[in-house]
Amino acid sequence: MNPVDPRSAQAFRFVRREYSAGEVRLVYAFDDGPELIERIGFPDAPAVLPERQAAFDAALDLLHLIAGVSYYKAGVPSTILVEGTALDVATAGFLDALYVHGLGEFGYHNKIDMRGRIRFPASAASAEMRAMPNGLPRNTLVPIGGGKDSLVSVEVLKRAGESATAVWIGSSGLIESCAQRTGLPMLNIARSISPILFDYNRAGAFNGHIPVTAINSAILVAAAILYGHDAIAFSNERSASSATLEYDGVPINHQWSKGWGFEQSFRDLIHARVAADLNYFSLLRPLSELAVASRFAQNNRYDDVFSSCNRNFRILGPKPSDRWCGQCPKCHFVFLALAPFMPKPRLLGIFGRNLLDDPAQTGGFDALIEYHDHKPFECVGEGRESRAALAELARRAEWREDAVVERFAHEILPQLDAAELAIEPLLVVEGEQRIPAHLLALIESG
Amino acid sequence: MNQASASLAVDAPWVVIKFGGTSVSTRARWDNIASIAATHREAGKRVLIVVSALSGITDLLKGIGEGFADEARCAELLDTIVARHRSLFGELGLLKRNAIDAWMAQLEHLLADPRRAGGGFDWQADVLAIGELSSSTLGSSYLNALGLTTHWLDSRDYLCAEALPNQSAWGRCLSASVRVRHDPAVMAKLAARGDVFIAQGFIARSADGATAVLGRGGSDTSAAYFGALLKAEAVEIWTDVPGMFSANPRQVPDARLLARLDYAEAQEIATTGAKVLHPRCIHPVRDERVPIRIKDTNRPELPGTEIVWNTQSTAPSIKAISSRKGITLVSMESISMWQQVGFLADVFEAFKRHGLSVDLIGSAETNVTVSLDPSDNLLSTDVLARLCVDLEAFCRVKVIAPCAAITLVGRGMRAMLHRLSAVLAEFGALDVHLISQSSNNLNLTFVVDEAVVDALIPRLHALLIRAEVMRVGDAAVFGPSWRELAEEAVSIRLPPWWQRERARLLELAAASTPRYVYSLDQVREQARGLLGLGMVDRWHYALKANPHPQILRCLQVEGFAFECVSWNEVKAVRAALPDLPAERILFTPNFAPRGEYRAALVAGVRVTLDALHPIVEWGADFAGHEIFLRVDLGAGRGHHDKVKTGGAQSKFGVSLDEIETFRSYARQHGARIVGLHAHLGSGILDAQHWRSVYVQLASLAERFNRIEVLDLGGGLGVPSRPEDVPLDLVALGAALAEVKQAYPQFQLWMEPGRYLVAEAGVLLARVTQTKHKGDVHYLGIDAGMNSLIRPALYEAWHEIVNLTRLDAEADDLVQIVGPICETGDVLGSNRRLPTSYENDVILIAEAGAYGAVMSSHYNLREPAGETIL
User: Fold this and answer.
1) Quick one: which of A70, A432, B427, B515 has the fewest CB in 10 Å?
2) Could you read off the pLDDT of B302-326 as tens digits, one per residue?
3) What's the pTM value of the predicted model, to 2 decimals?
4) Residues 295 to 324 of A: which have CB under 8 A from any B CB?
5) What is the pLDDT of residues B110-164, one digit of tens each?
6) Among 3.40.1160.10, 1.25.40.10, 1.20.1250.20, 3.30.830.10, what is the CATH number of B240-288+299-311+475-490?
7) Active-site annotation of B, residues
8) Under an 8 A CB cutoff, do A319 and B454 touch?
9) Domain count along chain A
């Protein structure tokens, strides 16, 4: 087959979605092109309880609309057609915002202004809607990513005595070994992208970053109703809400769907359209990255299995370099964020090397502290967190002679406002959040 | 079991044989002990068997000793311990249980002992001793039941713990030392009782009559004590491994069994990494010069490792390379240190105050660097931070970690330093944080970053052998390799093709020399071996190795595509193979002029860029074209500096931090990057190397949009020296399959050159002159470096034989030199050949790659011609 370039398509079509025997099929197309079918597999899926059928259908409709973003972005046509179902104004508005902001970085890289292009057709008026409760049992789905954040959430849930299930999407040896280490029951949901997308890419399709947390959230809503969970606890922290840069007057956030704006609007939409008794929140929302790092450092249970590195390690080995590339912004940031909170030999053992004593990494750390460069498009903490962490290390006898710290102390520190470099204020639990009160108490206690 | 009926003479020699926990835990293992003891007895030796507790029992007893306060838990542990011994009792089929029951009852009494409440160290020692007392009791009953009359001894009656000054109560009871002297009276007394004895490892008695235990490695040490006491003919430590090795066999499968070591070497190797033998057990036997033998329980026929007073080996040799990970260095810099009294005292006082024990020390006038061995408190407490704060009072402190100490061990280290150049060159590419050469001249230690160690040790081991400082040819010192032992047989290489073709080769040589001769059958055999792997989607022949048209045609028939590094190579392929589709040519030049890229794009061959310059400066040339990108993954590998093609010191490839820049220019010019290529070096014999490159490339490719092909380059090694192990194609296939399964979306390409043709070619030459200068014997031949430059350029090693006298004894040690006026015109040094005469035909093997193609007319001498068989 020789697919045409989707960039020349007139319309993107949400064709239909199907469900049988634990498999969801989400079908899309550009114009009259081939059907693009995404498959999502729920292992050992139970039958959908009759009283939850309506909620499950609503969840799959929403999933269909949200997961379309992976395919839509290949061509970014100006017409969006939703077939077989009518959108109300509120849902269409939610989707417009998701596609515009979630593809913000994509638009920046591909030089496309998303604002003018995306218009989900709303035909039904938005009646005030309230979905029904579904009698979901008390059990939290906690998505695991293999990094430190979700493991902090797991430990908080365990301390609170909550029943919880560690869940992840797609196969990943790294996540699986972290999930096993949690000691929680596990759920691994399969997801496969239409292979035609790969052909489109070869034919010249647009490519770039998509709001994957939104897609994962929608998959987990369907899973919660199918398996019976009354909460989904993500592990997005406060800084995920801040823009990574501004372009043409528009703030662009690399991790928009991890931000507070998405969390709030998505939860409201679920409560209104899917299930009133399904809670969706981020357990780490009122924490800075440094505050998360300080909590992670309290427990060495995951030292030899976790990784926040951006490189996708599909083949694991026993060495730290099999989990940490040591060169990406995530490696730089996590190393820096953990350094003030754990013994140096332990941190160096986790990474297998000392990134702060490697002059070749200076540029990477400069980007984190927003020196000579803007913040990179990666899920890393705010500049002031990195600056505070480096300033703290510059005060530590065991760190201050390391190449990157030493240069920071001599070259950069004198230019900074000393009042903004304290770590303590950054560890304060504050800001918007919607965490259940008994869990919030544990978060606040540190 | 039949026992020799008559008792041995009073002065019969003694042998002490020691068995660890796993060796005393099953009936089959006890049968084995019985057979070993009986064999010695039949050979006229008195035997003392020293045993550990059943495996796991000491840990359980320790649980009681340290968890004394928790009575319920202690009772639980007691039940487990009793059950384990009853179960072995049952398995051994013994009849009378009272002996073992007595020890179990004693343990129960110890739990009821009022001393338990305080958990005193003397009480803990009594508890721990039960393990060995019980295992030896079961063993004694069983051996007697088998008919081997065995006398049970209580080790505490023979080994008396020595009180040391400043010794803590813990040390006195739980980590005791024993001072032993040979005691003829004990020997005589025991000889009067019988021939075979069994005693406990690990336990002794202190001067006040209390039980004391010996601490870690205790049973080995007990055996050594008894060896000294009885002035035994040997102490045999029976284990589950064949002996001590020249490196950790898990890291280096080619590590050699060490057949013979002296005490100091063995102690050094045991201290710096090897776990087979506890270093403490050397000291007791040293004074009495009792040899220790390490033997493999599973293969008693193997000679094992013998540790003796003097190895009698005259030539110094490095015996082993070992490594220890998890090392933290503390580097202290002070301008005022110079000649300042008490600086080091202050430094070490701080370490002492924080309970940190220093191992290696390196010092200069303004710097002292020390190493700390791994310990729990470094990882889980802020002790290091507190230490640094204290040290800052008088110096600048820097913490360097995680590090690993690599130690070369061998007597006479300093006499070998000048031959370590290749080894030191390997360290030259790394950050070496500390070097320590011990004053006892036994070791040389390098402290480097931990991350490099696993890959480094096998390389260093190979380089030590190549540099002939680890003299593995000396059979008195080195035994077979771990790999050979594991495979139970030395892998036998088939005789090379040129032995079969000797007559034809001699005929060709008679016509004219020097002359390269190639065997296409051999090329095909190599090609089919690779094709048989199945994992690789497209094989290319890197024709720079040998562009002979008939070899190109042969490989085209076998299904190979072709990799060229210059436009002239592209032209050569197209001239030799007019029907070859252009897309089966991969053009991978380095620093080529713009015109070559343009010509290649016009011709429709696939082009690989390996620098920013072409895409930045000539980007428009590549508009609308699919290109490959050659990346530099960082660390180069290969058998010599000049054949390493990765790393900042290498001119090949785009470094990782420039990839994004490259992509943005490619995007801007509409060039599509469809393949990633990496080639890190040549002559690599370790299959895991390609797995690692493949994984790195695949994870890199995932970040691109349109990568279809991963090209791992070549570098498949060809064994040259007799001890080289050929590349394991099965292991290579398995390594590639593992990655391919994880990244099925990418096609896999490879491009070997030398692997296909090296063994297919030989260089024939004739002896011109011979010369003796002092002790050195030169054999001159009519092929020089202008025909084969590899030995001069890469220090490459080629097998060299006298084809005229192939079957004659090779007993002359010669330097084989060519006729070129260069000191470096040496084809082979220190080779053994039969006495050779003018006009004899000399054959230089593995000359099919980078031979004729690199030849020149230097000195206006005609290089060797080429003939295809």
Assistant:
1) A432
2) 889 999 887 665 567 899 999 988 9
3) 0.74
4) 300, 311-315, 319-321
5) 999 999 888 889 999 999 999 999 999 999 999 999 999 999 999 999 999 988 8
6) 3.40.1160.10
7) 821
8) yes
9) 2
